[in-house]
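Run log, item B.
One chain of 91 residues. Sequence copied directly from the ordering sheet:
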Amino acid sequence: MELGVEAGVFLMYAAAIIVLFLFGRILLLPMKLLLKLTVNSLVGGMFLILINIAGAGVGIVMPVNIITAVIAGVLGLPGVAGLVIYFNGLA
């Protein structure tokens, strides 16, 4: 049974589209994780800045840099609490 040239070309295009779709899905997952880490780090940095502003009168200060922002972004509120304890010796 011969498919003909047109059917063969159609099947090749269909296979190429499926391969591109699967390749795109594989690459999209790490990008979502990287985007989530970036957004969480920015939010963590904002929390650190807010704590510095609010805690200035009480004497609670923390450095705001890439490392502290990533810690606050990845660990969330417990990470921010840990940073406050670490940098201010409240333990």
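Observations after the first pass:
- The chain has a mean pLDDT of 83.
- Residues 46 and 69 are 8 Å apart (CA to CA).
Flagged for discussion on Thursday.
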